[in-house]
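Input for the complex:
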Amino acid sequence: MLATRGTIASSANQGANDPQPTDPASQSLDSLEMEEARSPEAIEPDPVNWQNLVERIHKGEESGMEELYRLFGRGIRYYLCRQLGHQELDDKVHDTFVIVVQAIRRGELREPERLMGFVRTVVRRQVAAYIDEAVHSRRDELNLDLGVRVADRRNNPEQSAAFRQKVDLMLDVLNDLSERDREILTRFYLDEQSQETICREMILTETQFRLLKSRAKARFGEIGKRKLSQKPLIAVSLRTSVR
Amino acid sequence: MNICFESHFTGDVLERYAMGTLSSFDYGPLEEHLLLCKPCQTRLMELEEFVLVIRAALTQLAIHPQPRFTAQSAYAL
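Predicted:
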């Protein structure tokens, strides 16, 4: 369950009970080059010397900054996109890097091996600042509620249509399930009941619970692939919608 | 340059992170891992999409339950 930090090398070792991945067409953060993540080089051992990296950035070496970007670019982009949506994403990523690099140059990172934690802290602060700014400007301009969600990932009609299609696929999957199985999924995903509570109240073992979830995911992926292969135009539309 | 991890977070943890239901959990190691680990980023994206979709579908079913075709309903016809 716990991730190792930094300079560790070995092959990927996913949890034994991991559910199956869903339909590949269900990608929403397209600009993150999803396929890259599946490529073999993504799991090749390649230790990072944090001390050396931080020193190079501290000295203002171009290679240090390039490596920092290579390491954290995708992760920062992903985190910001997840929290704030696509709007002005490149600028936000750039701002975050500038803050990190400037802080390192000022010698504010005393323990180079804590670079990951340092970057995370900067990114979180950036997110908080953007949300704060958005809430204030919206409140000033439109007198909106504070509870307005800042990020909206389905920010165009095509993406909304693609999402609607996926919901319809999911309805097919759910309608094929027994009422009991639907209730289990409702309790977990909608009512946010804990696995322990659900298993206790519905007299389920942990394995049965996990199996049900895995099967729903697998079925969703399976039906999705089948329907998309039957409707090439829709598939094209789905793919372009996430670009 | 890529970083390789000797272990990843389980799908269960990632799913609860996607759902926002990880209670009393130290998010630090997970979010640091996610900053660097492409496979886990990808996995989380897939799980988030799944959670969004299943929540929307279950909500729709809860609001407009679709009747199942049963022996009773056939008799009623």
